[in-house]
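Deliverable D5.2: sample structural annotation.
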Amino acid sequence: MKVFEKNSNIFKLLSEAVSEGIIVVNAKQIIVAANGSANKMFGYQDEEMVGLPLHSLIPKQHHTSHTGHFESFLVGSQKRQMGRGRNLSGAKKNGGQFPVEVGLNPFQLYGNRYIMALMTDITERKKAEEEVSHWFQIFNESLNEIYVFDATTFKFINVNHGAQLNIGYNLEELREMTPMDIKPDFKETTLRKLVAPLAQGKKPKLDFETMHQRKNGSFYPVEVHLQLSNIGNRKVFVAIILDITERKAYTENLEKTVAERTEQLEEALAAEKELGELKTKFLSLVSHEFKTPLSSILTSTTLLSKYTRTEQQENRDKHLNTIKNKVKYLDNILNDFLSVERLESGKINYKHTTFPLSKVINEVVYDSNMLLKEGQQISYPQDIDEITLYFDEKILELALSNLVHNAIKYSPENTKIDIQVSKNKECLTLSIIDEGIGIPAEEQKFIFERYYRAGNALLSQGTGIGLNIAKRHLENLGGDITFTSKENMGTEFRIKVPLNS
């Protein structure tokens, strides 16, 4: 150490101008010099590190392995870069740890061996790498197809895993292709004309429907959301693709089903007055249940166009969430109507599988948590991890969701929805107990009738279909739904699932 002190002024002069931390240790792993950047990096005062063992700067869990590495390096005496591709950490004086990269340079002075370590704190780089890795994982695992292509050449730069699976090409193949290769009806001039408003900054996004062609030659309809972005100084287009095959088929089938049922209903009206009353009630219900969310969607869509500045993103997000929620609500209503039709026609194929009860309850509770009012909570059943059922999982989830959602809807704030499970040799019983408005005694006998809604529930949204559908499905599978209720005190619904099905 004394030998090195002779040259301390020279060391300080040369090292203090360097932003990286510089530490010099002797063959006994004792620190003989450190520059200001190193002191600051490890949390020491000037000259405070001199005389400390090198272990002071290394996390305790690495002390044992480090001794062997140091001795091996001293014997080899070759310049070496450490840290790239490895996770090296430094230990601060206060016990904190941080990631570092280290360059090691052996040298001799007056016959003594030393090692100079050039250290860089890479905390910010690690954070950036982790963030990039996180976003890349989201990009690659997205269920939607995502294509990134050059704004000038149109060649694909990156395509996520979901898109590769659906289109049939791997990433290497796609990087030699352009959107025109998967959209045969598009010529380059057509695409350039289409994206011109984006390239010229006239529009922030383009939405349109088109067809994509897979590697095997088959076609599928897609909805495209296209935006202009940047990768460094390179302008790129980002296309988020939704495969709308099922939506198209669903819409066509729905239109066909509605047309068929309307014709059948009109024929039946001439014969039975009761069906005429049913149609009036149905149309009134549809008008009421569709008008409110559609008005909200129209209002939010109109307001969206007014928030054009970047700082108004929060307002845009608020209205987008309103639109999404209302569309989901409408979709649920349509699904209920389709379920009624399938039950009436007998076109239902139930699928029995073996599954843990906890899986269904977890999914229902997770979805229901987003609907809870202020202060409401769901009490989760205990000791159900070992219970498995052989039943139609989707039907049980449908019935349980319906009852839990109703309990939330018809209960005030700051109340509890309790889910309980009991079991005997013949059946398993799921009880959903709320502290809500209850069902008037004189109306309880009608509660499972289609489109029926109790008088004290008319101010809340609902079709009066859900309970009817759930009960009929369960009865078809050998189960049942029953209930007890007192007005203004709450309701307990019980789902019974046979164990010998």
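Annotation notes: The CA atoms of residues 7 and 176 lie 60 Å apart. The chain has four domains: 2-124, 142-243, 246-345, 353-498.
The annotation will be released with the project's public dataset once the embargo ends.
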